[in-house]
Design brief:
two-stranded antiparallel ribbon; 6-stranded mixed beta sheet; 234 residues; alpha/beta
């Protein structure tokens, strides 16, 4: 398992020549204003886009931008069809998917399983701007929008559901979120070092299914990779 390199040790990606954007673009018009013909990375989040480090996706977006990548944001998209996920065009490297700062089920429901009347991470506190199990829904829509683009999931919802887990809302043990979301890679925890490593390796031409050696990542495998061993969890 590879320990990711120091975040600031990478050579900046060529798109660093575009400089720092006032805000990460959320539309083609904003991309045009920056002189971009495409995004290298598109981040999809269940929260409103607030350009502040208390919002995880904004933090990750700015971190990737500091590495030279062109990063776009799709915030609280309409999940009823894939069109909203095509708003910024096809990303050159990957889609990054998160439910937002909170697990979407905790965000939408009280402990009595009643739908909440507001959402602290949406303008004006408006409720209903994200789906149940947002990571699964967003990842599937991103895959539908642009087939063949790697889909990477992360954030608190994906991190806590990376293995089989008890799901309070359905009162069942659910399997890992990976097969349900059909994501190529799950990055759990804070993820700064891992996401930078993944982005640079994809930019160098590595395939997403070749990236199997970075700490803090999870993925589906049909067999046990070479030099790996299984731990009995019973």
């Amino acid at each position: 398992m590879t320990q990711p390199a120091n975040i600031f040790s990478y050579r900046p990606y060529w798109a660093a020549r575009f400089g720092v954007s006032p805000f990460l673009p959320m539309s083609r018009e904003e991309m045009d204003d920056l002189g971009w013909d495409s995004c290298d990375v598109i981040l999809v989040t269940g929260d409103a886009y607030v350009d502040h480090p208390s919002f995880g996706m904004a933090l990750i977006g700015r971190l990737l931008e500091a590495q030279g990548f062109r990063v776009g944001i799709i915030a609280q998209p309409d999940w009823s069809h894939a069109d909203a996920f095509r708003a910024l065009g096809r990303p050159n490297l990957f889609f990054g998917i998160t439910a937002g700062n909170m697990d979407s089920m905790v965000n939408r429901y009280t402990s009595d399983r009643r739908i909440r009347s507001d959402d602290a991470y949406t303008p004006d506190g408006e409720a209903g701007k994200r789906p149940d199990r947002s990571v699964i829904v967003y990842a599937q829509r991103a895959r539908e929008a642009f087939k063949g683009v790697p889909v990477i999931i992360g954030g608190i919802e994906a991190s806590l559901r990376r293995i089989a887990h008890y799901d309070y809302w359905s009162d069942k043990v659910r399997r890992s979120i990976l097969p349900d979301s059909k994501a190529d890679l799950l990055i759990f925890g804070n993820a700064e070092r891992a996401i930078v490593e993944v982005a640079h390796r994809l930019a160098k031409g590595d395939k997403i299914d070749q990236i199997r050696d970075i700490r803090g990542t999870g993925f589906m495998s049909q067999g046990l990779p070479d030099e790996w061993f299984e731990i009995d969890s019973t």
